[in-house]
Write a structure and sequence with these properties.
By secondary structure, the chain is mainly α. The chain has helices spanning about 5-20, 35-40, 45-55, 80-110, 115-125, 130-145, 150-160, 165-175, 175-200, 200-225, 250-265, 275-285, 285-300, 330-355, 360-375, 380-395, 400-410, 430-440, 445-470, 475-480; strands at about 60, 70, 305, 310-315. It contains 20 helices and 4 strands.
């Protein structure tokens, strides 16, 4: 099947990847269509179509009223397959991204587990006879404890792209028996880290996860180094994250963000908006999307096109415009925003610390300008967030991180509607701003990354709480689902308990 973005394709690739990992061998039951729909949180139809596609490709046999029969893996030997060779460059890059992102996401997932989930986790970790599956399920449970569908979407796409590459490399380098012992030790470390979190030893859990990361990725690094020059002539496939399965209308989101920028004085009345090409590059969308965005702003009386000159701002947005964008106030969009903000809060310190040493002078200037203007600008935090996200997208040496942050920037536009009421600063803004400014001026990029991470964490925690308490009833349940109070930043991991 082609690498497209539908729910059906996502489920297909995920299940095919699990078949490649050998998870349903030795008589283990293949999940039913109801199990699949529940697991991926989709309706019956895409789950059923994915199963039919697996059957058409000769991987399973569906039996009415009986259990599904597993017939084959997608690749008899994945490391010798054309698919692996075409993905090699992206796999090297993706493994580096996982090494950077996985510990911080897993740690917060462990912090979010309640006692019942913790007990269930320990039970499942002992049930399967397949060491790789136990490790897979353990990490999957950590992700699911966050209640964040955006993060799950990211890891579904990553897992489908990786298929069995890590497991096959481990088996080839260490042998089957030694490889299984190694996986058992990793699963035990993961369980010990979870126990540390349950007993509020967060520093110990973090150290354990970082050590586990080093052990897990050392095998793939050595293997990839040996292969890097062997398949350089192969046409390479790139990793793509599609957080929204199917078509997505971005012009409304971009329009709201531009209206907010106009309201904040960043595009005053009488000035021209940047060209369509510049805006397309800034928002990482097509020029067709920008053209539709400008048409919408023209209809609302915010801008007008002047032939041969460009698009001029003729009025500021006001609260009455929220009626035009009411469809974007529905829970789906606000949940997407909160989930994306949480992903940023979880990963930003590691990513920015990794990226800043590779930044161009122009990128560093953009961050300096955002910090300088922050105290006097209505959109102060938004300016700093935008500058740092753009720097990662432009200068991060890892292509997978650039891809993830590019999509995250678009997802965060779902929250632009909230800025119509003016930006409320986080309660600790003065201290956070001083930490940001002082560390950046001193050229201490590690401290700056930590300060930015603190800002993202506080922004997520406080905005989630405000949406819950300010009468936005459609968001109350969403705020409860995304990173339960017990595991949210400021409560367990990043708060005073640490």
């Amino acid at each position: 099947m082609q690498y497209t973005s539908s729910q059906e394709q996502t489920i297909y690739r995920s299940l095919a990847g699990q078949l490649q990992l050998g998870f349903f061998q030795d008589g283990e039951r293949f999940p039913s269509v109801q199990d699949i729909a529940s697991y991926y949180q989709v309706s019956y139809c895409p789950a059923q179509r994915a199963l039919k596609a697996l059957e058409r490709n000769g991987l399973i046999q569906l039996c009415r009223g009986k259990e599904t029969v597993v017939l084959a893996k997608p690749h008899e030997n994945y490391l010798d397959s054309h698919t692996f060779r075409r993905r090699l460059t992206a796999l090297i890059d993706l493994s580096q991204a996982l090494e950077l992102l996985s510990p911080c996401i897993c740690l917060q997932g462990f912090c979010a587990m309640d006692q019942d989930t913790y007990s269930d986790f320990l039970t499942k970790a002992k049930q399967s006879n397949h060491p790789a599956k136990r490790l897979y399920q353990s990490y999957d449970q950590a992700l699911r404890s966050l209640g964040n569908q955006t993060i799950l979407s990211l890891y579904y796409d990553i897992g489908a792209f990786l298929e069995s590459s890590f497991l096959d490399i481990l088996t080839e380098k260490q042998g089957k028996e030694a490889g299984q012992c190694f996986l058992e030790s990793l699963t035990k470390s993961l369980c010990d880290s979870l126990k540390d979190c349950q007993e509020h030893r967060y520093d110990a859990a973090e150290r354990r996860l970082n050590k586990l990361r080093t052990h897990f990725f050392q095998n793939t690094k050595q293997y990839f180094e040996q292969l890097q020059n062997r398949f350089h002539c192969e046409e390479q496939e790139t990793f793509i994250w599609e957080p929204h399965k199917g078509r997505k209308k971005y012009c409304d989101l971009v329009a709201i963000d531009l209206v907010c920028r106009i309201n904040e004085g960043r595009y005053p009345i009488g000035v021209k908006l940047p060209s369509k090409a510049v805006l397309a590059n800034r928002y990482h969308v097509s020029e067709i999307t920008i053209r539709r965005t400008i048409d919408l702003l023209n209809q609302l009386g915010i801008t007008r096109n002047i032939n041969g000159i460009g698009t001029e701002v003729i009025s500021t947005g006001d609260l009455s415009l929220t009626d035009e964008f009411k469809p974007l106030m529905i829970s789906e969009h606000l949940r997407t925003f909160l989930e994306s903000l949480q992903l940023l809060a979880l990963t930003s310190e590691a990513v920015i610390s990794y990226t800043l040493p590779h930044c161009s002078a122009k990128s560093l200037e953009s961050i300096a300008l955002a910090i300088k203007n922050a105290p006097t600008n209505l959109g102060s935090m938004t300016m700093i967030h935008s500058a740092c996200l753009q720097v990662v997208i432009d200068d991060c040496p890892n292509a997978a991180i650039r891809e993830i942050y590019e999509k995250m920037l678009l997802l965060l536009l779902n929250g632009s509607i909230l800025r119509f009421n003016g930006e409320q600063l986080i309660s600790k803004w003065t201290d956070v701003y001083k930490e940001l400014s002082d560390s950046f001026d001193a050229g201490d990029y590690q401290s700056f990354a930590k300060a930015y991470g603190h800002m993202a964490q506080h922004t997520f925690s406080e905005l989630k709480e405000r949406l819950r308490t300010e009468g936005m009833h459609e968001v109350e349940k969403i705020a409860d689902l995304i990173n339960s109070e017990r595991g949210s930043y400021g409560d367990n991991y990043a708060g005073g308990n640490r």
